[in-house]
Amino acid sequence: MExxxxxxxLTKVFGGLTAVDNISFEIGKGELFGLLGxxxxxxxxxxxxxxxxxxxxxxxxxxxxxxxxxxxxKVRSRIGVVSEGVMLYRELTAYENLELLGRLYxxxxxxxxxxISRLLEFLDLKERAHDLIGNxxxxxxxxxxxxAALIHEPETLFLDEVTGGLDPQSATxxxxxxxxxxxxxxxxVWTTHYMFEPERLCDRLAIINRGKVVMIDTPDRVRNAVKxxxxxxxxxxxxxxxxxxxxRKVQGVLGMFFSDGKLRLxxxxxxxxxxxxxxxxxxxxxxxxxxxxxxxxxxxxxxxLTRGGING
Amino acid sequence: xDGLIVAKKDLQQLKRNRMAIFLSLxxxxxxxxxxxxxxxxxxxxxGTQSKFLGxxxxxxxxxxxxxxxxQALAESEKLGKVVDTSSRETGELLLRSGTVxxxxxxxxxxxxxxxxxxxxxxxxxxxxxxxGIPENAYAAIAEIAQGYSASVNLQRSGxxxxxxxxxxxxxxxxxxxxxxxxxxxxxxxxxxCFYEVAGGMIRERETGTYPRLVLAxxxxxxxxxxxxxxxxxxxxxxxxxxxxxxxxxYGAVVYGNVAVVIFVSWIMGLSAMGLAALLSAFRVSGRAxxxxxxxLIIVLFAFGGLIRDRxxxxxxxxxxxxxxxxxxxxxxxxxxxxxxxxxxxxxxELTLLSLYTLGFYLAAIFVFQRRYESLLS
Lengths: 312, 377
Known about the structure:
heterodimer; A: alpha/beta; Rossmann fold; Alpha-Beta Plaits; 2 domains; four-stranded antiparallel sheet; globular; B: 377 residues; alpha/beta; abc type-2 transporter like fold; 5 strands
């Protein structure tokens, strides 16, 4: 696999706090790579180091074959970034924003006009090309940011929590758009804390917690790697805080959370704890509508790997 | 090249913000000019601030009485240094160079008139392009002259150089409005330029467009240059607006070249832009920019010669005034507008102002490079 992105012992220390601790990984060309982690895990800091917006304290990274510390200009020519912290000018139109950035990237005039037209068409913004960005909805703004990130035809795209705050339709269309970009050979690094996104979207993912890489693999393998617990999926007619706290006390319950209206309990050796869980639920006077034993989802694997979840 | 692109972008943004155009190019110059006109005619405080004024004495009489009068001037606590000059012409040269604020000419016949007990007079030449100077000098010298039964004839010297040396009567003293034109012009430029550059840089950072520019390979230097070009264009426009209001709106007279006046006001603005660039390299907030601007204005008012002429300052006030680059800008504008000096004649002031400007910009670039990372987060 030819590496499009290569992190080599990346470390970032802010004051006394180590935000990213000796992270190393490789991302292949055309791969859609997810960086997963809870808030404050170090995903965005890692991403900002890869995009040359932060200098690593130690270690380095190579993006598109160039060193982010020694050759930041060359890296910038070859990457696109969509992030909350990297915005467009609200007082300029979508067209003017793209034209400004294209000129700074030294895209030749003729090529720039074609590229703006193509991107606006592709991202369904052609009708609003001459409207001010400040008048755009959140979804349109995100699409415009995608266009800005792609104006110079980058080899690698860094997407930082791009679906946050979007309605489901806009989020889905951006995910599909990203998938299409990868098919065209653009390497994409996607940071998120929504577990279902990498599960459906990414070729591989890295789980980061407290600044360290916990695991790097495909979503399936990450799920299967966590074999020391089962999921007891229950459908209850109600579940209050008291019931949840009682369930937490049951020996063998590692964690729990709600998904699609069902309470999913992460349990060690379900045969042993099954009866005790049912008794606890009944004791609270709650009716159990259904019970299933399932394999862990990526989210559950993630919680297990990062020792988080509502069980703390 | 990148600087031009950034400047064009700033102009596009300004085009969409009519209120900013109105504030920067119309309201600000108009408001300050109107304030100046409203204050014109206010009386000058006399005789209370003269003790730091340097005076040259040209004794043409060379009598016992005239020497006694000169001695009285030298010993008076109401005046600063008293320089004995060989002739009136030398005194006027000292006045022109700024060594003294006024020249006292004791004309022939002074001694005999005093001896005979008849009324006589001395001639006082003072630079009325400096607010309050002639009045303060007059009050101090008239009190001493009274002891010799002499009156003081005040001759205001604020004319173009040839008439200053040739002592041609101008017919009317320089008005407060004319004195104020240079002050208001410099003040408006410093005020607006500082905000345009510092505010613009902070806005880029606070709205997240600064990292977008950096990712698009615009260097901090290019961004600063772009902001400077943008603000320079506005500065030149503002200069024209202020002078147009003053000349055509209120009938002020500019004795020097108008283009030179605008050029000097641009250099003053440029130094404010440099200071603003330096400030914005320190990752300050928008609120900090407003507070800094407020402080800058207070310092300018207090020490820039706006309220009190530099010749009337002493000690730490004079020291602070000398440290401010805009002091030299105001002085250059005064000399061009009121005394008709040309560009070459104000080169010393412009050189100092330019050195400050260069220093601010170099420091800004240095700090930007050192603090590169914190500005992106």
